[in-house]
Amino acid sequence: MITCANPKAQYLSYKEEIDAEIESVLNGSTYILGDQVSLLEKKFSEFIGTNFSVGVANGTDAIEIALRALDIGIGDEVITVSHSAVATIAGIEACGASPVIIDLEEDFYTIDPKLLKAALNPNVKAVVVVHIYGQSSSMNEIMTFCNEHNLYLIEDCAQAHGAYYEGKRLGSMGDIACFSCYPTKNLGAIGDGGLITTNSQELASKARKIREYGWVNRVSEIRGRNSRLDEIQAAILNVKLKYLDSDNHKRNQIANIYDHLSCKHFHVPKRRKNADHVFHLYVCRTSYRDDLIKYLQDFDVFPGIHYPIPIHLHPAYKGKINMGSTMSITESIAKEIISLPMYPELKISEAQKIVELVASFYDSYA
User: Fold this and answer.
1) Distances (CA, A) of 198 to 41, 46, 201
2) Mean pLDDT per 10-residue run, the chain (366 residues)?
3) Is 96 left (phi over 0), alpha (psi -120 to 50) or beta?
4) Res 366: pLDDT
5) How many Å apart are CA 345 and CA 37, to the nearest integer?
6) Strand blocks (E) in the chain
7) Inter-helix orientation angle 231-241/244-258, to 10°
8) What's the confidence (pLDDT) of residue 262?
9) C-alpha–C-alpha distance, residues 217 and 220, integer Å
10) Helix, strand counts (H, E) of the chain
């Protein structure tokens, strides 16, 4: 059976190292916000190319805490997209702000910078860009817009650990950036985890306070909450971080095999010329999606859909979310996207098998 993702396979790849680090934590005396978290924060900021990194409990918390560190809250609005994990919107709402959603660039499924101006109003304080599937948003245009209109720029890098835009790692370009370390991510824990990166000492300090009750020496200087990263997850991430670039290279090798699938009825991902894709997901488009999924499942291949329903059409949000533009592209691609299996441990022979199956489907069915 070939699944869309396989986090256990990555654990098995580094099992000896991971088990040794977990044992070291268990035999120690600190289990939350200890030496492993401090080491991860140091190594991850060096990896991304920022001055600071802050470990938190998960990626959703990372977005909330980043916004709160920027003093964004009740009465403020934040421009973002509807084509993302619900976590993006949930993080904005958790800090008390309201999301304003706009449509996408059709080629890359990322926020369309040309729609930003029309969505602007006096309450908008920030833009959250989502680097979807492992590829950068159009950062130069977005950074220029934010600078011109005095807006904060937050990068949602939950699917883009290690990706580059014009020679810089994603997560180093905005005012602050947020990463999820959910098990299926390019840098995934064996449980929940998240990271925040920034070049601002003030923002890093505020984020550290907010993640633990606003404490400084156990005195709450500001209002905070509990979003602490535990030592076991940090230890696992420290092991995996050493191999992240190598694992991303393996994802690209698989993507290069899948690229041969492009045909009239099946469209493979397009890549920005000035960016390096890390293929958290390999997302294609086809009007025969549901039939293709059934066909592949008959051969024990299980693709995914990321995401079948735009956030603004979920029952919790339908008719209750601010629309900064029409959602024509967002709604149209949701009906056609399909995620082929993608993880570093996927065998080349398995990727080739998937190519053959998809090709045979279109030869005989479509």
Assistant:
1) 11, 11, 8
2) 98 98 97 98 98 98 98 98 98 98 98 98 98 98 98 98 98 98 98 98 98 97 97 98 98 97 92 96 97 98 98 97 97 98 98 97 82
3) left
4) 58
5) 27
6) 52-56, 77-81, 98-102, 124-130, 152-156, 164-165, 168-169, 176-180, 194-198, 215-216, 219-220, 275-276, 282-285, 322-323, 337-340
7) 60
8) 82
9) 8
10) 13, 15
Of residues 107, 105, 147, 106, the one with CA closest to residue 127:
147
Amino acid at 252: N
H helices of 180-303, in order, are 201-210, 231-241, 244-258, 289-297
Parallel/antiparallel/unpaired status of strands 98-102 and 194-198: unpaired
Q: How many CB atoms lie within 10 A of CB 15?
A: 12
Distance CA(95)–CA(83), nearest Å, equals 20
| All residues at 6 or more sequence positions from 163 whose CB lies less than 8 Å from its CB, including other chains | 131, 134, 135, 136, 157, 169, 170, 248, 275, 276, 277, 278
The answer to whether the CB of 53 falls within 8 A of the CB of 183 is: no
| Among the listed residues 214, 161, 201, the one whose alpha carbon sits nearest the alpha carbon of residue 185 | 161
Backbone angles phi, psi at 323, to 5 degrees: -105, 120
Tokens of 264: 């009239």
Per-residue tokens: 299? 């051969």
Give whole-number Cα distances, 9 to 91, 131, 188, 198, 347, in Å: 30, 25, 12, 32, 11
List of residues 6+ apart from 277 with CB closer than 8 A? 133, 134, 135, 163, 252, 255, 269, 271
CA distance from start to end of the chain: 24
Selection from 224, 156, 159, 167 nearest residue 196 by Cα: 156
How big is the chain, counted in residues?
366
Residue 269 DSSP code = P
Which DSSP letter does residue 138 get?
Answer: -
Q: What is the DSSP string of 299-310?
A: TTB--B-S-SS-
CA gap 83, 274 in Å, rounded: 22
